[in-house]
Amino acid sequence: MPQVSFDALVSALLEGTHLASFPTDTVPALAARPDRADLIFQAKQRSAEKPLILMAGAIADLWQYVTGSEAELKIWQQMAETYLPGALTLVLPASDRVPVTMHPSDPTTIGVRVPNGAIAQAILAQTGALATTSANRSGQPALLTMSGIQAQFPNVLTLSSDEFPDLDAAVSGTPSTVVKWSNPNWHILRQGAVQITLP
């Protein structure tokens, strides 16, 4: 896997020419520009039935990708402001700004998240929201180290270990909790790093 500088990794993501991997607060992300999400499906050998997550550097960057009533938006914002940045993914109705390639089998919903990690937030602040998923072949455990990702995905860009010597340190290894909005309630799809008890 080519190790590159921060600026080179950001440029490649913006150009849509490469996949990149970087640490988050849960597991390392495999990321691409949203309209090039097909690169992720190909690299992971992932079924189109399995959606990707739209990851952003700030909560405010997410709302253009979802659509709902004013009352719903208020509820979503409250949940986001309580748990994000952090290890929570919200599955919400998708707006027409979300490329169909993000979730080919059901483009009506989109999972959104803001990671609580300095490196991930710095990248996302430069690139805008990215299509992301865990860095592993579909059906296999998430890879937790840059060296493991290098071995399995030799063409994916990662940050230079000279520039960022502690890339593996921030990774908890526990995936995000996933909650889905089904008006008028939230439903837990996966209990992960954030423990949520819903009424």
TrEMBL record:
Its main location: cytoplasm. It catalyses: L-threonine + hydrogencarbonate + ATP = L-threonylcarbamoyladenylate + diphosphate + H2O. Its EC number is 2.7.7.87. It is found in: Cytoplasm. GO terms for cellular component: cytoplasm. Gene3D superfamilies: DHBP synthase. SUPFAM superfamilies: YrdC/RibB. The keyword Nucleotide-binding applies. InterPro entries: DHBP_synth_RibB-like_a/b_dom (IPR017945), Sua5-like_dom (IPR006070), TC-AMP_synthase_SUA5 (IPR050156). One of its GO terms (molecular function) is ATP binding. Keywords: ATP-binding, Cytoplasm, Nucleotide-binding, Nucleotidyltransferase, Transferase, tRNA processing. GO terms for biological process: regulation of translational fidelity; tRNA processing. The keyword Cytoplasm applies. Pfam families: Sua5_yciO_yrdC. Residues 3-194 form the YrdC-like domain. Belongs to the SUA5 family. This is L-threonylcarbamoyladenylate synthase.
